[in-house]
Structures are given as structure tokens and as C-alpha cells.
């Protein structure tokens, strides 16, 4: 492990995160609120820390960045980004403790959307803009952004790309990873611009259009309003945001192909078809359950509420237009199961990912066929291509580790004083990067009452979920740190 090289790259990333605070600083200065000082101090502190880390790695060559350094850089980059990103929250006194600030920043960068703020609208717009901006930066990925704007990282960038991009196998749109990063961010920015325009067209002001777009396209869920999207009580906003949440939960490589004129790319992809079927089945079954229970007066409203909550939870966005904690048991059970499924590989969504569930289902079917026909040679295929055994092993291992971590962290959260439902749902909501759970952390609640120990446990869950477990786990393997 070349620790000085790791520090050098981390220094650059800290600098990028610090400079991004200029955007919320603009809102603070334009509003004339006192939080502008917190941003100035945070920017200067972040740049100083980044410069010191960069200086410690003087003389190191980015071309020598190997797989072990990549694991360390990617995992630690989200930790240091959250550590620096917590400063505006803490210095502006928007949160009572630095732990709360770190939790809010980690929730933002990991696109979880779990908040400790009790009265969101009482905070200055600069703080709320920064809170949502952390989503947007973390959605496509801090490392992918760095690769897009720092081409001199060169060959080592592929190792970083593999360690951060979600899914069993990272997709390169071009032979050069730097160009792939640029194209992914271009699609991300384009879809974000389209959503901002659509929301503004419906009458939403520019500040709220931007912040809600950041939360949608990053599948994060932070809203500058206490009542989230439900506060508007607008069918137009509900359906616009549902559509863009759905797009954000799909593979961005497919969006790029469609933008290039290959219109069949969505339907020709097995994972996208599976994803669409899950959305349609869950939406209509939940809507029917809501309508028959009598909780809503019209089927149109039950369909709108069902679609919004299903897509929000499945894509791990976490926005809410209804208090699903009061729904019939069937609706709550569907949403709880969707917390584990998550979005597609190559999306900004969290969770296990649709493609992994598909592979596991196919593998179970393959084993059953093998029992019936022992002599038959069966190949597991995805999109017409035979999956290699190492991919199958990786998917199986990921699922097992995910379930074990869920069980272990649920026990840990129960030990902090949460009841069974809250312990389970808090871990499911943070490990899956979703945000709201059930009980006191439901769509109308928040995480402020969680103990300090619990907040650090859940912060680790968010990090593990965003980096898909293996990247973080590698930091605890002794061999990773050996020279």
C-alpha cells in the first residue's frame, strides 16, 4: 500500500468538495444570512486540509495507483468528504453536535437522505442548498466526478472507477475511463436540467426546483420542506418526480445509448425489463390495497400515492407524499421488501440491485434444472451473454454478506434502545441508502432521537451501502495495507 499516494489523491478530492461549497455560499450571501461565515471557514479549512494531504504525497505518480490504493482512496474519500462536509452544518449551529453534522453529510454524500433536522424550513437556504448539493455530488460519485475533471490520474483511474461504480461489473462506455466518466456526468447533468425545467414549468421556484432535482437524480431524498414533496399536494409534481426517480434508478449507460438514438436499449436490457415489471406490479398491487382499505377516496389518488412511494423506496430516493407508516400491512410489507431490492446496476440507486436478484433467481432455477437433468450442461446467461463463474460467485458472496451485515447491525441498533421494527428498518433504510424507515424514523419522523452510538453505526451502514460493501470491507483485510 502506497499511503502517500493515497493521501495525494485524497487531497485533491477534499479540494473539490471544499470548492463546491462556493455554490451554497452564493445563496447565503444573496440572502444575507449569517451562515455565510460558516461556509467561508469551511472552505478555507477544507482547502488547507486538502493542501496538507496533497503535500504529504509529493513525488508520487498517479500512474502507479493499484487496486489496493484504489480501495483505500474510494472508501476514505467518502469519509473525508463527509468530515469536511459536516463543517457548515456544525459551524452554522444547524445541528447540535459534530456527530449530527457528520451523519447529515454522510447521509447526503451517500444519497441516503436520513436526516436529523427536526424543523428543516427554519434553516438558511445556504445550508439547505449544501445539504441537497451533497446528494448531487455523491449521486454519480465523487470519484467519477474527479476522473471527469482530473484526466492526469490516467491509468490508475480504472481501478478507482471499478471500486466506486455500483453493480457486479462496471460498464465502460468508451475504452478510456476518463471519457466514460465525462459521458456519465454529461447524461446526469442533462437529465438534471430537464427535471429542473419540468418542475419550474409547473410553478416551483428555482431554489426548490434545484434542490428537489438534486435529491431526485441522486436518489437521495433531502427536501428543503418539512413535508417533503407531499407538502405541494400536486399531481403534476408527483408524476414528474416519479418519472425522474424511475430514470435515476435505471442504468445510466442505457440512457446514454438511448440519447445516441438506440431506442431499443431500454427494452433490450434484461435488468431494465425486470425493474419495470417490479415497479408496475408493486404500484398496482399497493394502489389496489390502498383503495380497498378506504384510506383514499379515489383510485387515481391511490395509484399516484402508490406509484410515488413504490418508485421512491425501490430507487432508494426516500421522498414521500404519504405517511406509508399508516398504510395497510400489505403496502408496508411491499415497501420493506423493496428496500432490499434497490435500483439497477450503473444507476444512482442503492440496495442489492435488480441485476443481482435476477442472477440469484436464475441460479436457483439452474440448480433445480440440474437436479432434474444431472447430465445437462446449463449456462447462466444475462442479455445473451454467458456469465463467468467469478461473477456468479461475487453476486452470491455479496448477497450473503449483505444479509449478515443487516442482521448484525440490526442487533447493534436494538442494543442502543430501538424496538424491533425501528432497529430493522433503520438498518434496511441506511444500508440500502433509502432514508425513511418505520416508526420514529418513518416518513413523518427523523433520526434526531437516535443515540450518538447509533448515529455512528448507521453512518457506517450508509458508507457500506453506497460503496457496495466489498470496497469498505477491504480496508479491514490486513493484506490490503501490506507494502
Description of the molecule:
With 483 residues, the chain is mainly alpha-helical. The protein is 65% helix and 1% strand. The protein contains 22 helices and two strands. Strands 1-2 form a two-stranded antiparallel sheet. Strand 1 (381-382) and strand 2 (385-386) form a beta hairpin. Helix 18 (389-415) crosses helix 19 (420-431) and helix 19 runs parallel beside helix 20. The termini are close together.
Question: How are the elements arranged and paired?
Answer:
Elements: H1 3-19, H2 22-31, H3 36-56, H4 67-91, H5 98-109, H6 125-140, H7 142-149, H8 157-164, H9 177-201, H10 206-217, H11 235-248, H12 252-259, H13 265-268, H14 270-293, H15 299-314, H16 329-341, H17 354-372, E1 381-382, E2 385-386, H18 389-415, H19 420-431, H20 452-466, H21 470-473, H22 478-481
Helix pairs in contact: 1-3, 1-4, 2-3, 2-6, 3-4, 4-5, 4-8, 5-6, 5-20, 6-10, 7-9, 9-10, 9-11, 9-12, 11-15, 14-15, 15-16, 17-18, 18-19, 19-20
Keywords:
483 residues; mainly alpha; 65% helix; TrkH
Count of alpha and pi helical runs = 22
Q: Give the structural class.
A: mainly alpha
Low-confidence stretches: none
Rg estimate, integer Å: 22 Å
**Main sheet makeup:** 2 strands, antiparallel
Number of strands: 2
GO cellular component, one term: plasma membrane
Protein name: Trk system potassium uptake protein TrkH
Family: Belongs to the TrkH potassium transport family.
GO molecular function, one term: metal ion binding
Summarize the structure.
By secondary structure, the chain is mainly alpha-helical. 65% of the residues lie in helices and 1% in strands.
